[in-house]
Amino acid sequence: MPFPGARVVDISRGGGTAEHFRADLSAPADWARVADHFTAELAAYAGERVIFIHNAGTVTPIGSAAGADPDAYARAVLLNSAAPQALGAAFLRASAHLTCERHLIMLSSGAAKTAYAGWSSYNAGKAAVEHWVRTVGQEQPADGCRVIAVAPGVVDTAMQSAIRATDETDFPSVSRFHNLKRTGALTTPEAAAAGIWSLVDRDLANGATVDLRDL
């Protein structure tokens, strides 16, 4: 976090910061709760900037769309495709009256452009995020919220561990991710975070979709 003294609110199921708003972002009922939270917190906001980073997503279930558990697949579609749009729109509404800097940063992936068999919901969700960002960025006035999407690279997280544990029959490209781990080519979470935060001060067009590896 490059802003000393900033207030950080973690919106998630488990919580990772001192201030935690518990929500399951694969559950549409919780989207309304998050929207109400945005509205309440930003109604009288007087800070220099407000930033919403949406990085919730899941790569599971991994395997063919036809062979996936229907309930798990539906949750993945809601989390990967629908939640970013619904919560992004809620943040825009809640912050529309503010005159400070406003930033909406959506996490994307190389999977938005490269189709990996076994990742249909994840691939489609990231592609949806990027096109939503391009569209909504065009809708912003000159003094509006800056909306961008960023692919951080292949980051060494628990998600990567789950990917490498997948059988090749469910994910034919699994060997690529084993090679990235073996050769030390994964990005650390700390480096990815620093790159994402740097976007706040970069001169990027509204609606830009960028890859940290290209900056």
UniProtKB/TrEMBL annotation:
Keywords: Cytoplasm, NADP, Oxidoreductase. Transmembrane segments: none annotated. It comes from the Bacteria. GO terms for biological process: tetrahydrobiopterin biosynthetic process. Gene3D superfamilies: NAD(P)-binding Rossmann-like Domain. InterPro entries: Biopterin_syn/organic_redct, NAD(P)-bd_dom_sf, Sc_DH/Rdtase_CS, SDR_fam. It is found in: Cytoplasm. The keyword NADP applies. Its EC number is 1.1.1.320. One of its GO terms (cellular component) is cytoplasm. The keyword ATP-binding does not apply. Pfam families: adh_short_C2 (PF13561). SUPFAM superfamilies: NAD(P)-binding Rossmann-fold domains. Belongs to the short-chain dehydrogenases/reductases (SDR) family. This is Benzil reductase ((S)-benzoin forming). It comes from Kribbella solani.
